[in-house]
Amino acid sequence: MKSAIITITLAAICAVATTASAQTYEEKLAAGAEKTDQNHLNVPFVKPKNPKTVYTLPGNWPVFENRAPIDRSPRDKPSKVLVMGSGDPNPNPYRYGPALAVIVNGYPYFIDAGEGWWRAVGKSVTSQGALDLATIMAPRNLKYMFLTHLHEDHTVGLPSFISNPYKFSSTTGAADKKVYGPEGVDEMIAHINTGWRLDRNEMFQGSIMAAADGSTAVGVPIWPQVDVKGRKIFEDDNVMVEAFPTEHGFLKHTIAYRFTTKPDGRILVFGGDGHYSEGLVNAAKGADVLFVEGITRKNIKFASWGGDTVEEKVKTIGAYHMFPSDMKKLQHDSGVKEIVMIHVQNYNSPENFDRLSVLKEMQDEGVTNILQAQDGDLY
Ligand SMILES: [Zn+2]
Ligand SMILES: [Zn+2]
Fold first, then answer.
1. What is the pLDDT of residue 11?
2. Sheet arrangement for strand 239-245
3. What is the Cα–Cα distance from 25 to 8, expressed in whole angstroms?
4. 274 alpha carbon to ligand 2 midpoint, in Å?
5. 40-62: buried (b, 16+ CB within 10 Å) or exposed (e) per residue?
6. Distance from residue 273's CA to the centre of ligand 1 (Å)
7. C-alpha 185 – ligand 2 centre gap (Å)
8. What tens digit of pLDDT does each residue of 147-170 get?
9. Residue 109 half-sphere exposure, CB side, CA atoms within 13 Å?
10. What distance in Å separates the CA atoms of residue 64 and residue 43, rounded to the nearest whole number?
11. Backbone phi, then psi, for 187, in 5-degree steps?
12. Does pTM surpass 0.70?
């Protein structure tokens, strides 16, 4: 009975696939299609019937993801930023949680460990040919993580960051991890070490008999050394990193990181979540690129949180996130040359959803040189 059902289902899918369109998914993208109603197997997506659950919010429908990862990095600068995860807490199947990497001299420095961190590395490796990412992301190189804040959507990938490279490092060796972040990061990492102790012990005492090197992680709290003027918190031969305080809801300590790359002097800033603040302006002063969140103001009435009225939502959500008016002020006051949005919160009705509408809102507000990232992009 079961096999009969499978046969019928497959036959139905094949029938749809062959009659759906003369153009392939790739051809449609190359032709500049605004969006596609098919996935890469030319099978039509199943459009959710109920747009009111967390799984079926318009922003989570894969039908709105219309392009492959691209390389937007300057050709004459060897230092790059890889966007591995551009998502937010929503369960968008096409965007991993916030995860970025600065790559200098073939070595990666990670910013935030969102959901799906290890898979985001894997996807990125197959997305960009300009860099030898398979070599750059060797387990022995996965060592430094900088957390903007300790919200779940920016940290839930930490157990993967700590354990997975170790599991795959029997021939090449793994690095012991160092995780910089706000107050509490040491406690968080200690709990992860404890929580996965059985797994780790099995790896170096059990059948694999791996060496214990590379299996540990320490959290390095960088507070209270951080104030709005910024402090240098890390330096090696490749990068110098400064930390600045940001403002993001009721969290006490949230951080923007300003990387200066030594070989080519790029200034790359990671704002994490949050609204306009003096610390963020200082972090982004004259920077080449700022990677930061953005949220709709026009369609805030469709937000599922923040209160019952538009006024309440604007007040509550504005205490956490970056409206277009904030972004404009931030660009004006910091003089940052380019802004790349990740963690875009794009609320709308299902009928009027436009994947790029937050970007357009930002541009309508007067923000210039702003882009919206997708997983696997290079900047
Ligand atoms: Zn977030
Ligand atoms: Zn957050």
1. 38
2. 231-235, 239-245, 255-261, 267-272, 289-295, 338-345, 370-372
3. 25
4. 7
5. eebebeeebeebeeeeebbbbbe
6. 6
7. 15
8. 999 999 999 999 999 999 988 876
9. 25
10. 15
11. -65, -45
12. yes
